[in-house]
Amino acid sequence: MFTELESLRGAATDEARSRRKDVAEQVTIELVRHSVAEEVLVYAQVEKKVSEAEAERARKDHAGAEETLSRMEKLDAHDPAFDDELATLMREIRQHIAEEEGQMFAHMRQVIDEDELRKLGARVEAFKKAAPTRPHPHVPNEPLPRLAAGPAASLFDRLRDIATGRGTDD
Ligand SMILES: [Fe+2]
Ligand SMILES: [Fe+2]
Q1: How much distance in Å is there from the Cα of 64 to the middle of ligand 2?
Q2: Is 129 exposed, middle or buried (0-12, 13-18, 19+ CB in 10 A)?
Q3: Ligand 2 centroid distance, CA of 15 (Å)
Q4: Domain presence at residue 44
Q5: In this structure, is residue 37 part of a structural domain?
Q6: What confidence tier does 170 reach under pLDDT thresholds 50, 70, 90?
């Protein structure tokens, strides 16, 4: 999705612009669900079994990206500032993924056995189905506040998504 967004940067036709908006919305939905699931399930394990500092750094990365998503949400997709925010987001996320996949997951594999990691993966997938779809930067990137805000935020986000057709192709 990032590669497609980059190829659509400065899109001139209405069709390309609307495609760019749809992909940016889909990216937002997927990133928010992924982040909340990680904060509640994965980083909690990292904090306990790997390193508190590593979990804290990852939560800060998420908080930064969530601020970017929240600024993007307030901009019209035709605004040049939207392109800049999108570029910022992609830089933040790529950097975060490199750290997560290059270091954190390797550290997790050293202390958590494969069976447990597979179960954790399945819980993450199940959790994502019930997670919010819009950025909520005022909610701390910690399990308890995320869970407390979760049901209301998810339901409200999904109702708004249905009302506006966000996350669909029409
Ligand atoms: Fe993450
Ligand atoms: Fe991740």
Answers
A1: 14
A2: exposed
A3: 31
A4: yes
A5: yes
A6: low
